[in-house]
Design brief:
Strand order of the largest sheet: 3-2-1-6-9
Order of helices and strands: EHEHEEEHEEEEHH
Strand content: 15-25%
Largest sheet: 5 strands, parallel
Radius of gyration: 16 Å
Number of strands: 9
CATH class: Alpha Beta
Number of helices: 5
CATH architecture: 3-Layer(aba) Sandwich
Length: 190
């Protein structure tokens, strides 16, 4: 199975170009990508917290997420699930943590779903851990990343998911899921 881990802000909605028409155009492109490469999507955006992980029901107050799911339905984008929430503790008493570590959430999802043979991450995140001034653990999935630009002040039409990313996604989806190979080697699934 092919899966695309998709971020919302900056990917489906650019910072300058977030009109309904712009977002719909990007979702339509995402649909074309999914159908061309026989892929389903997994939500790894921060607004995933408005989606119940078990039932995939969306909070009635989450109008942005409801709008995106309306478009996913309209363009037949198959939503396979959403990544779990992961907390990384950085204090010995476990009182201080950061909750958004996309790479860990993606890896955990992949471990729980060994049926995923190939995956791609579409995100505007530069994958830096800005709190520590160094690259984050996302390096472990960096070779599966298709990075989009979220803010192009000189040309907002270059923000978010664009047709030029379609071929990149196809190339990334051909790469092996190294996480799956490690799990099979050690026979450990979560």
């Amino acid at each position: 199975m092919n899966v695309i881990f998709i971020d919302f802000d900056g990917t489906l909605a650019g910072l300058n170009s977030d009109s309904f028409e712009d977002i719909e155009r990007r979702v339509k492109l995402l649909s074309e990508i999914c159908h061309e490469y026989n892929a389903k999507i997994v939500i790894h955006a921060s607004s995933k917290n408005t989606i119940n992980e078990e039932t995939m029901e969306i909070s009635p107050k989450a109008t942005y997420t409801l709008f995106l799911f309306y478009l996913f339905n309209k363009y037949n984008v198959d939503v396979y699930g959403r990544t779990p929430n992961v907390k990384k503790y950085y204090s010995s008493d476990r009182s201080s943590y950061t909750s958004i570590w996309k790479e860990d959430e993606i890896r955990l999802y992949l471990m729980r779903h060994p049926e995923i043979e190939h995956f791609c991450v579409i995100d505007d995140d530069d994958l830096l851990d800005l709190t520590k001034g160094r690259e984050s653990d996302l390096n472990k999935v960096r070779d599966h990343l298709v990075k989009v630009e979220s803010y192009v002040p000189s040309d907002p039409s270059q923000e978010g998911l664009l047709p030029k990313h379609k071929e990149e996604v196809g190339k990334v989806l051909k790469k092996d899921n190294k996480i799956l190979h490690l799990m099979l080697k050690y026979k450990k699934f979560y």
